[in-house]
Amino acid sequence: MIPTSPHPAAIVTGAARGIGRATMNRLLAAGWSVVAVDREPVVGIDAATEDRVLAVQCDLADPSMPSEVVAKAVGHFGGLGLLVNNAGISGAKSVAETDDGNLAQIMDVNFTAAFRLTREALRVMQPGSIIVQVASVLCIRATPGTSAYTASKAALAGLTRQVAAEYGPRGIRCNAVAPGLIETDLTAEKLKSDAGHRRIWKDGTPWPRLGRPDDVAAAIAFLASADAGFINGHILVVDGGWSAGATAA
Ligand SMILES: NC(=O)c1ccc[n+]([C@@H]2O[C@H](COP(=O)([O-])OP(=O)(O)OC[C@H]3O[C@@H](n4cnc5c(N)ncnc54)[C@H](O)[C@@H]3O)[C@@H](O)[C@H]2O)c1
Asked: In Å, how far are 9, 35, 48, 125, 139 from 78, measured between CA atoms?
């Protein structure tokens, strides 16, 4: 799918692994240049595309980082056509167990950093530019023990609609993907160790397999493409049917 944005440079946060890494690879294959942001080093970039990758290692929870990242993108590639807010952390506590520290940690990365990056991007983006937020299917349906995470992703869905309404008239689209359970480092340990979690997600997904990072990357690349040119303010669920209904088991 061909980039349609006025500028072929994209920021992808959380690009070191998982969904972010798969998204970076998809976007590079579609012709984008990518500012790959992560608190971990982004290593192993294909030599054929490394001249189109600028790796920025930073903690996005630091309030000064979002503006620095956007400035680096503009400084290095001359503009910004796409922002993918993907970096995120999970948290497994009920509402009553979530203290202020847990709440701040999750909101700072999953929502506040994404809001700040969105704001800074909008200040430099030209008409035709695109923003994709990586929310979660938990922005539309809850499970026990994911309170701050669920709230942070619901906030991101609200931000998606807000940006669509405010900036759509200027030709800037904002959409979100809402993945179900995707097998990545974020989910591997819990899937292995927690039978209840496996029951809710693995057995509860009416599809023969769990999600893969590339399933989400493909949806993000679609939303960033000309084929999605009239899609604005949409939450695209990528969950194998988990939110649609229960399995027969
Ligand atoms: N895996 C799933 O099942 C699933 C489901 C729904 C939504 N999501 C969302 O998708 C996104 C990616 O998830 P994933 O499974 O690929 O996770 P992951 O843990 O495999 O990768 C997340 C990446 O974000 C980076 N990151 C985290 N905090 C950061 C910070 N403060 N500053 C900079 N980088 C930071 C990590 O270093 C890591 O490389 C997250 O927002 C997550 O909430 C994942």
From this structure: 8, 12, 21, 11, 34
